[in-house]
Amino acid sequence: MEIQSIQTTGTNAAAAAHRGSADKHLIFSLGKEEFGIQVLAIKEIIGMQEVTPVPKMPSHIKGVINLRGQVIPVVDLSLKFMLTPQEYTYRTCIIVVRTRGANGDRLIGAIADGVSEVLTIAQGDIEDSPDFGNGNPTPYLKGIAKVHGKVKLLLDIHEVFRTDSVVGLNFSN
């Protein structure tokens, strides 16, 4: 699985030279939608592997995997975001992310339908999340990027997994 690094249009070389890793986002797909996670939060990307189910978990929590001796929980992001689940294919992968917790960082696996690229996204290309008019905030959505005429939903991965504590699972510890 090859990931290429590109820059968005409309930036000059001086601005690009001053950008840090915080502006780099891994772009991945869930169904037909594209999402982004800051590269700084990603430990690694691994191919899909057997996940050991854990009884009495919500359907989006697929179970746990053994990653080089460390047991980490695995969440299917399509199910978590109530999107139409896709069949797992050769492109399906697990994005292993570091999330903040009260006791330090914790690793969590996030199942994605595929990864496509790493983009450097200028702050000017990111808009705040729109008000959907239903009064429900979307704390897990950092913003929406417009890149090459397409929309990418940028996730705050720490917030994505912190919300699992409402069902008795606190991944932030």
UniProtKB/TrEMBL annotation:
It is found in: Cytoplasm. The keyword Cytoplasm applies. SMART domains: CheW. GO terms for cellular component: cytosol. Its main location: cytoplasm. It comes from the Bacteria. Residues 22-166 form the CheW-like domain. InterPro entries: CheW (IPR039315), CheW-like_dom_sf (IPR036061), CheW-lke_dom (IPR002545). CDD domains: CheW. GO terms for biological process: chemotaxis; signal transduction. Keywords: Cytoplasm. It holds the Pfam family CheW. This is Chemotaxis protein CheW.
